[in-house]
Design a protein that fits this description.
mainly alpha, Growth Hormone, Chain: A, 3 domains, three-stranded antiparallel sheet, 14 helices, 3 strands, globular
Length: 465
C-alpha cells in the first residue's frame, strides 16, 4: 500500500468509484473499507465506505492556480470587456448591457446541474471531471473570440452565453474535484483559499483586460489564454484515474434530467436546510451589494450622482476586496482548525447584519458608512468559505451524484440574484416621495435576511459541526 492510500480491489457490489479517486501526483486518494470499520468519512449508497485522506499541497496549489486563471477569464468581460463592446455596438443604448449579462447568467444557471449530471455519469480514460474542464476551456475561448468579433448586440449576447457556459463548466469541474477528493478537515481551508483567489482574480482579470483597451480581440482573448494555461497545468498534473469501468445505474435521459433538477428535502434535510439558509443569506447580500454604489451616492453626494463619488467608490471597492478575501481565508482556516462550521456561518450572518445596520443608520458620515461596508464584506467572505465547506460536508450522494447536487446548490445563489433586485424596487419607494429612495429600509431588510440565513444553518444543519 502506498503512503497516500490503498484502494484495494473492489469486491462485487462494492462502490465502483472507490478506485477512481486520486491525488495530484496520480496516486490513489481513497480506500474502500468494510462498513463495519469505525473510522470513516463518507458512507456510499452501497454501504461501503470511502476514507478520504488529506490531499497534497501540490493538488491544492494547482487547484488554486486553475481557479485564479479560469475566474479571471470569466470576470474580465463582466468587469470591462462587455461594456466596451456594447458601447461600440450600441452607443445610444448602453442599458442593453444588463440584458446581455442577464441572458448569460440564466443560461449558466440552467446548464450547470445538467453538466454536473453528465459529468457524474462520464466514462472516459481521463476520468469524470477533466474532460469537462478541457471542453469548457475550449468552449470558453471560442465564446471570447466570438464576442470580440460580434457585429451586433444580439450576436454579442449569444457569444456571452457560449463564454458563460464554457468557463462556468470549468469552475464547476474544479469544485466537483474538491467534492470528490477533499477530506472534511481540509474543506474549510481550501474553500477559504478559493474565496480569496476569486477576489484576486476579479481584480487581475479586469486589470489584464484594461491593458489591452483599443484592441477588441486582445482585451477578450488574453485573459482567456491565461485561464487556458492555468487550467492546462491542472489537467496535466492533477491525475484522475480512468472512469471507463464506472457502473452507471441510470442513464441520463431528458425525463431523468428534469426530475433530477429538484430533490426531496425529507431525504436530505441537512442539505435542504443549508440550501434555505444560503438562499436567505444571498438575498441579503444581493439587496445590499446591488445598490451599494447608489446608496453611497445618495448619502455623500449633494445631487445623488455616482460620478461625484467615483474616487470613493474605487477606495471602497479595494477595501471590500481585501475584507472579503481576508474573511474567506480566516473563516476557512479557523473552521478547519477548530472543527466548527455552523458557528462561523452564524458569525458571518451577525457581521453582515451589523455592517448593514451601521450603513442604514450611518447618515452622511463617510467613515461610518465605509466601516459598515467593510464589516459586511468580512461577513460575506467568512460565509462564502465556510458555507462552501458545509455544502461539501452535507452533500448527498457524493460519490455518484455530486455534480447534480452542486448544481442544485447553485440555485440558492441564482434565485436570490434574480429575485432580490426586483423585490428591492418597491422597498425603495416605501415612505419616501419624489426622487428619494429608502435605502435605509433596504439595508435593514438585507440585515434581517442574512441574520435569518445564519440562524437557519446554525440551528437546523445537524450533521455539520
Amino acid at each position: 500500500m502506498n503512503n497516500d492510500l490503498d484502494t484495494g480491489t473492489p469486491q462485487p457490489g462494492a462502490d465502483p468509484l472507490g478506485a477512481a479517486l486520486a491525488d495530484a501526483e496520480g496516486g490513489p486518494l481513497g480506500r474502500m473499507v468494510g462498513a463495519g470499520e469505525p473510522d470513516f468519512d463518507d458512507v456510499t449508497p452501497t454501504g461501503s465506505v470511502i476514507v478520504r485522506e488529506r490531499v497534497s499541497a501540490g493538488y491544492i496549489w494547482l487547484l488554486i492556480i486553475a481557479t485564479l486563471g479560469s475566474y479571471a477569464a470569466l470576470v474580465a468581460p463582466i468587469g470591462i470587456s462587455l461594456s466596451l463592446r456594447v458601447q461600440e455596438l450600441a452607443p445610444e443604448n448602453i442599458e442593453l448591457l444588463g440584458y446581455v449579462v442577464g441572458v448569460g447568467a440564466i443560461a449558466a444557471a440552467i446548464s450547470q446541474p445538467l453538466v454536473g449530471m453528465w459529468s457524474d455519469r462520464t466514462r472516459s480514460r481521463l476520468g469524470r471531471r477533466r474532460p469537462f474542464a478541457i471542453g469548457g476551456t475550449i468552449v470558453g475561448l471560442i465564446g471570447l473570440a466570438l464576442m470580440a468579433a460580434a457585429p451586433s448586440v444580439p450576436v454579442l449576447a449569444l457569444a456571452w452565453v457560449v463564454t458563460q457556459l464554457g468557463w462556468a463548466t470549468v469552475l464547476s469541474s474544479l469544485l466537483l474535484s474538491q467534492a470528490d477528493r477533499l477530506p472534511e478537515e481540509q474543506r474549510g481551508k481550501v474553500a477559504g483559499l478559493s474565496g480569496f483567489t476569486q477576489m484576486i482574480a476579479s481584480v487581475l482579470g479586469v486589470g489584464i483586460a484594461s491593458a489591452f483597451i483599443g484592441n477588441s480581440f486582445l482585451v477578450f482573448l488574453v485573459p482567456g489564454l491565461i485561464g487556458a494555461v492555468a487550467l492546462t497545468l491542472w489537467v496535466t498534473l492533477v491525475k484522475e484515474p480512468s472512469s471507463r469501468d464506472l457502473v452507471v445505474e441510470q442513464k441520463l435521459t431528458l425525463g431523468r434530467a428534469l426530475k433530477d433538477m429538484v430533490f426531496n428535502p425529507k431525504q436530505h434535510p441537512d442539505f435542504a436546510w443549508n440550501w434555505l439558509g444560503r438562499l436567505f443569506f444571498m438575498f441579503g447580500v444581493t439587496f445590499a451589494t446591488t445598490f451599494t454604489t447608489l446608496f453611497f451616492a445618495s448619502r455623500l453626494s449633494e445631487g445623488g450622482q455616482v460620478a461625484d463619488i467615483g474616487g470613493l467608490i474605487t477606495i471602497l471597492s479595494l477595501f471590500g476586496v481585501v475584507a472579503t478575501a481576508g474573511g474567506a481565508i480566516l473563516g476557512g482556516f479557523l473552521s478547519d482548525k477548530l472543527k466548527r462550521r455552523r458557528f462561523f456561518v452564524l458569525l458571518a450572518g451577525l457581521a453582515f447584519t451589523a455592517g448593514a445596520i451601521v450603513m442604514a443608520f450611518g447618515g452622511s458620515n463617510a467613515t461610518v458608512l465605509i466601516v459598515g461596508s467593510v464589516v459586511t464584506s468580512i461577513g460575506l467572505g467568512v460565509f462564502s468559505a465556510v458555507d462552501q465547506a458545509i455544502v461539501l460536508d452535507v452533500l448527498p450522494e457524493r460519490d455518484t451524484e455530486a455534480g447534480r447536487y452542486m448544481g442544485i446548490n447553485g440555485y440558492s445563489t441564482t434565485i436570490a440574484q434574480a429575485i432580490a433586485p426586483i423585490v428591492a424596487a418597491p422597498l425603495l419607494l416605501i415612505g419616501v416621495e419624489g426622487a428619494d429612495k429608502n435605502f435605509g429600509l433596504l439595508f435593514i431588510v438585507a440585515a434581517a435576511c442574512t441574520l435569518i440565513g445564519g440562524n437557519i444553518v446554525m440551528i437546523f444543519v445537524r450533521s455539520a459541526k
